[in-house]
Amino acid sequence: MKYTLFDVEKELQLANGTIECIGLKEATFKHQFANEPSCKESCKVKSHQEAIKLALDKLNDPKYNLIKSKDEISVVGHRVVHGGEKFSDSVIINKSVIDDIDKCSLLAPLHNPKNIEGILACANVLPGVPQVAVFDTAFHQSLPQSAYMYALPYDYYINYKIRKYGFHGTSHKCVAQRAAVMLKKPLNELKIITCHLGNGCSISAIENGKSVDTSMGFTPLEGVAMGTRCGDIDPAIIPYLIEHESIPLSEMTSILNNKSGLLGLTGFTNDMRSIVAEAKSGNERAKMAIDVYCYRIKKYISSYLGVLNSADAIVFTAGVGENNPIIRNLCCEKMHNLGVELDDKANNLVSQVEREVSSQKSTVKVLVIPTNEELMIAREAVRVLTNA
C-alpha cells in the first residue's frame, strides 16, 4: 500500500509512505515527512485495513504535527487500474461504482480486487470521508474507434469488450498538462507525444488535450518492449511455444509478463541502469536489449508523428525517461528530417527538474518532465468532489 498526504490548496506534499508484505512476518513500513530523510521499520499488519490505520496513526502522531485528527482528511483518492468502457472520468465512489470496478476485475484480475480492498479499508477506517476513484484507463477513453478496435470477430468485442484500453493515463495526462505550461500554449491547441518509460512503458499521442492513440492495449502487455513484458509480438508465437515447449497456458502468461522484455533479452536484469553499465563494459546482450528497447520506442514515436500530422512536443517521463540521457538520445537519433533533434549538453545534464532537451534546430520540442501521479490523483479527487 502506497500513500501520500497533500495540502492541495498549496499543492504541497506533506508526507508519503509504503507498507509492503502485508500479512507476512517480513512486513515493512517506510515513511517520509516532507523533505526529511525517510525511515524504514518492521511492522505487524495482517490486512490493508490495518495498514491504512497504521499510516493514519503515523500521520496523526503529535510530534510530527501533520494532522490533529482523522477529521482533517477531506477526501481520499484511489488509483484504480481498470475502468473499462464504463468510466471515462474520475468518480466519487459509492456501492454502484464498487460493483462496476469489480466487474472490470475480469480485465485486471491482479489489480482491481486489491483496489477494492483499499477502498473498503478506507471506508472502515475513515467513515464518512468521500472517496474518489481515478482510473488508469479513463484518459484513453477518448480514443477513436479506429484506434481502439482490434481486427478480430466483432462478437468478441460485443461479448467480452476486447479492445484497446490503454494504461498510465494519469501519468500521460499529468505531463501533457505540464508540457502545455512549459510551451506557454493552451493544451487544447497542442499535439504532444508522451513517453512513459519505467519498468512498464507506454507511448501516447495526445491531440488538443485528448488521447487519440496509445501503445498499451487490452492489457498492459501490448506496445513497446518493457522491463519484463515483451510488448508487441506475432501472436502465432504463443501457440507455437505452447506446443513445442509443452508450456502450460498459465506459465506462458507469466513468461510474457514477467520473464520477457529487458529481462528476457539480457538474461540477468530488467534494471536499465545495470544494463547500460553492462553495455558500456562490452556485454553484447545488454547492447542488444538497449537497441531493441529504443528501436521500438522510436517506431511508436514516428508512427504517432504520422497520426498527429507532426507534433509540438515529445515528452519523456518516469524512471528511465526522466533519468537516462542515453536512452533519450537513442530514441530520438536520426529523426532530424521529422523535426526532432536533441541538444547533447541539455540532454546529458543531470537534473531532477522539468526542462527542454531539444536543440534550437528542432521544430519539435523535446521535454523531460517528472511525472507526479500522486499529485494528479489528489487534484482529480478535489476536482470531482468540488463539482459534485
CATH architecture assignment name of the largest domain: 2-Layer Sandwich
The total of beta strands comes to 13
- Assign the CATH class of the largest domain: Alpha Beta
Distance between the termini: 27 Å
Q: What sequence of helices (H) and strands (E) makes up the elements?
A: EEEEHEEHHEHHHEEEHHHHHEHHHEEH
Look at the structure and name the CATH superfamily of the largest domain: ATPase, nucleotide binding domain
Estimate percent helicity. 25-40%
Q: Total domains, how many?
A: 2
- The residue-averaged pLDDT reads 94
Number of helices: 15
Q: Give the overall form.
A: globular
Compute the CA-based radius of gyration: 22 Å
Strand order of the largest sheet: 10-9-8-11-13-12
Low-confidence stretches: none
Task: Give the percentage of residues in beta strands.
Answer: 15-25%
SS-based class: alpha+beta
Largest sheet at a glance?
Answer: 6 strands, mixed
CATH topology of the largest domain: Nucleotidyltransferase, domain 5
